[in-house]
Automatic annotation (TrEMBL), chain A:
This is Ribosome production factor 1. One of its GO terms (cellular component) is preribosome, large subunit precursor. Residues 144-327 form the Brix domain. SMART domains: Brix (SM00879). GO terms for biological process: maturation of 5.8S rRNA; maturation of LSU-rRNA. The gene is RPF1.
TrEMBL record, chain B:
GO terms for biological process: ribosomal large subunit biogenesis; RNA metabolic process. InterPro entries: WD40/YVTN_repeat-like_dom_sf (IPR015943), WD40_repeat_dom_sf (IPR036322), WD40_rpt (IPR001680), WDR74/Nsa1 (IPR037379). Isoform 1 interacts (through WDR repeats) with NVL; the interaction is independent of RNA or pre-60S ribosome particles. Isoform 2 does not interact with NVL. Interacts with MTREX; the interaction dissociation in a late stage of rRNA synthesis is required for appropriate maturation of pre-60S particles and depends on the ATPase activity of NVL. Keywords: Methylation, Nucleus, Phosphoprotein, Repeat, WD repeat. Residues 369-379 have a biased composition (Basic residues). Residues 324-379 are annotated as: Disordered. This is WD repeat-containing protein 74. GO terms for cellular component: nucleolus; preribosome, large subunit precursor.
Length: 351, 379
């Protein structure tokens, strides 16, 4: 067989150099090289040497190329497994003295620093947040009251989604849209002391958008809804939720924009949760996707806690945040998602 | 102490939280000029302008109808003047005539001229309802323009305040014979001509020419599909920079109304836009709480400063932006400031990549640049 390991093995080496800490590098590399030399020698004995720049893609016969490529892959995997085993052995041999495991690189912990990250001690931001549109709620002056409606003529899952959303949010009422314009609904809502208007948009019977409008004077957020799972579709779910006010958990809303969005979600629920109900609504932000989950917990003993999902679950992604109540034509936007411009860097997050 | 800081600043911004902010681009520092103990939303800054040609005094118009004078030499507010009631709506424009005569305009359309020694306005004229902006002609300082929603462009001569010098006529009805609504959001006087350029809430840019008998716009251009909120004329001429509520900024050519280029990097709606009087740079601020400075030649982002509050208006000093500006003599004092303001320093960000690329470009093609320059010279 005509295998040339030369370019590949070189490649491997360079990769390892990058990935590993310099201390361990010397050892493992030596071992590695020894192995490789063995392999190469074997090859060289049986096969004539190829020029060092040869690659599998240069083979013109498709079947043969495929075969060679599979072999190459196998070889690579083998090497990798060997290396892994060796490392494990080393760790075991060292026992307690083994160096701590490396933290895997994820795009979250490699996140680009965002200068708008809120410092809790900052006076100016504290003042800005203290006097914004939600301050009435956070000062305990208003109680949330939510109107849920849909796009015109909702079908199928959207209807059930709205109903279930209304069981999660206390003081929420689902109304049929009746073909009314949002700009005409909003003054009526304000007159009836609603503090939120939620509009669920649907596409082909599946909810795909959500407008969250704080009343009486904004802001309005527009989200994309994806992977919505209704109560029926959730496995191992608990009994239907009770009418107790749930607790709210907001995770990872760190930037200035994230704070605004987090405050917006917090103001959806009444401020004093009824702990008897043992229900929690969670908004978890990860990589700008907001995951909603609704759970019931139980303290089994002093150490163990059991949770039960009650549903529904869905994922939100912020599309825009607009100042003032819903006015998509003449409203001023505080933040708009600009695709390809903002998400060009995968390690940059907005929330 | 505050004076040292304020002398450094070359960009001034008014925020929604009522704080006057100064930014020094050369030192990459941002300062707040306010009394942080009693902040209030009533103090929200809606208009900014220079009080004197030497740019040592800054006039700050707040929502509650007061105009404060800020001295950039002392770094403190020196004077507060009451110009109108809060019921008149917030300021849409502020301008200084010669020798401390002040022109204000509120949303209700009352255009007033104030003298320093009197508490009552000297002249008062009605520019109609819902005025969105009042601007002063930088050359003929007694000429001002107003315009707003359902309130077309009007040009006033403050020496003869009885009737407007020029009133724009509404656009011709459209192809369905329907009336076209008016909504002037911002305007500017084109230097070396009588013309005025306006931008509207219906994403149009209009050029009016009072010297011609035509009262309808002589040029109409459209940009984007969202309301245009601000506009500014660069020093180079023939173009206008407009910004809209979605945070899109574009340069439009005033000869044919075509888009010359867009400036990227904004996240939220534009509230204030100003071009530097001599350099090819434009500064923009808005609801996304950032001050951004773009170069108009290569359309690259040069500076991006996070300023913590929503920004309403901005004002550039006419000196070189990058220059320290008068602070060179007192190195000692300013260094103290630097140490103290480390945190502010950290919050600022310079777009370094751009700079790098620029330098490499310069290294690579010094010939091209010189060619360009030569071309400009010929023009």
């Amino acid at each position: 067989m005509d295998i040339t390991e030369v370019p590949v093995s070189q490649d491997n080496k360079s990769k390892k150099k990058k990935n590993k800490k310099p201390k361990k590098n010397s050892e493992s590399q030596e071992g590695n090289e020894a192995e490789k030399k063995e392999v190469e020698e074997k090859m060289e004995k049986s096969e004539p040497a190829f020029p060092p720049t040869f690659s599998v893609s240069e083979i013109k016969n498709k079947q043969r190329r495929h075969l060679m490529f599979m072999k190459l892959k196998q070889e690579k995997r083998k090497q990798k497994m060997q290396l892994k085993k060796k490392k494990k052995k080393e760790r075991e041999a060292l026992g307690d003295k083994a160096p701590p495991k490396e933290i895997p690189k994820t795009i979250e912990n490699q996140r680009v620093y965002d200068e708008t990250t809120v410092d809790p001690e900052d006076e100016e931001i504290a003042f800005d947040e203290g006097t914004d549109e939600f301050s009435a709620y956070f000062n305990g002056l208003t109680n949330p009251q939510v109107l849920i409606t849909t796009s015109d003529r909702p079908r199928g899952r959207t209807v059930r989604f709205c109903e279930q959303l209304a069981t999660v949010i206390p003081n929420a009422y689902v109304y049929y849209r009746r073909g009314l314009a949002l700009k005409r609904i909003i003054p009526q809502c304000v007159a009836r002391n609603f503090t939120y208007l939620i509009v669920v948009n649907e596409d082909r019977k599946v909810p795909n958008g959500l407008v969250l409008c704080h009343l009486p004077d904004g802001p309005t957020a527009h989200f994309k809804v994806s992977s919505a799972r209704l109560r029926k579709e959730i496995k191992r779910r608990g009994k239907d939720p009770t009418e107790h006010y749930p607790e709210v958990i907001l995770n990872n809303f760190t930037t200035r924009l994230g704070h605004s969005i987090g405050r917006m979600f917090a103001a959806l629920f009444p401020q004093d949760p009824q702990f008897v109900g043992r229900q929690v609504a969670t908004f978890h932000n990860q990589r700008d996707f907001i995951f909603f989950r609704f759970h019931r917990y139980i303290f089994k003993n002093e150490k163990k806690v059991g949770i039960q999902e009650l549903g529904p679950r869905f994922t939100l992604k912020l599309r825009s945040l607009q100042k003032g109540t819903f006015d998509s034509k003449f409203g001023e936007y505080e933040w708009v998602l600009k695709r390809h411009e903002m998400d060009a860097c995968r390690r940059k997050f907005q929330l | 102490m505050m004076g040292d800081r304020s002398r450094l600043c070359s960009v001034w911004l008014g925020s929604e939280t009522g704080i006057l902010k100064g930014v020094s681009l050369s030192r990459k520092q941002a300062f707040n000029f306010c009394n942080s103990s009693h902040l209030s939303r009533d103090q929200e800054v809606r208009a900014l302008c220079w009080g004197d040609p030497a740019e040592s005094e800054l006039l700050v118009g707040s929502v509650d109808g007061t105009v404060k004078t800020f001295s950039t030499e002392k770094g403190a507010f020196t004077e507060t003047r009451r110009c109108g009631e809060p019921a008149d709506g917030c300021f849409t424009g502020l301008a200084a005539l010669s020798d401390s005569v002040l022109v204000t305009c509120g949303e209700c359309g009352k255009l007033r001229v104030w003298r320093e020694d009197r508490s009552e306005p000297v002249t008062e004229l009605d520019a109609g309802k819902n005025v969105c902006r009042m601007r002063q002609d930088p050359v003929h300082r007694h000429k001002v323009a107003t315009g707003g929603k359902e309130n077309g462009l009007k040009i006033w001569d403050l020496e003869r305040p009885e009737t407007p010098v020029f009133t724009a006529k509404n656009l011709r009805d459209d192809w369905l014979d329907l009336r076209r609504p008016h909504w002037v959001r911002d305007m500017a006087f084109i230097p070396d001509s009588d013309k005025v350029v306006t931008c509207t809430g219906y994403h149009q840019v209009h050029v009016f020419d009072p010297s011609s008998p035509q009262r309808r716009p002589v040029l109409e251009a459209e940009y984007g599909e969202h309301p245009l909120t601000a506009l500014s004329l660069p020093a180079a001429g023939n173009t206008v920079v407009v910004g809209n509520t979605h945070g899109q900024i574009a340069m439009l050519d005033l000869r044919k109304g075509l888009v010359r280029g867009c400036l990227k990097g904004l996240a939220g709606g534009v509230r204030g836009l100003q071009c530097h009087p001599s350099q090819p740079v434009v500064a923009s601020c808005g609801l996304d709480r950032f001050l951004r400075i773009h170069n108009l030649e290569d359309r690259k982002l040069q500076h991006k400063v996070y300023l913590k509050s929503r920004l309403n208006c901005l004002l550039l000093a006419s000196r070189d932006l990058e220059e320290g500006g008068g602070a060179t003599e007192q190195e000692g004092g300013s260094q103290e400031v630097k140490e103290e303001e480390d945190e502010v320093w950290d919050t600022m960000e310079q777009v370094q990549e751009v700079e790098k690329r620029k330098t490499t470009e310069e290294e690579e093609e010094p010939q091209k640049k010189s060619k360009k320059k030569r071309k400009k010279g010929q023009d």
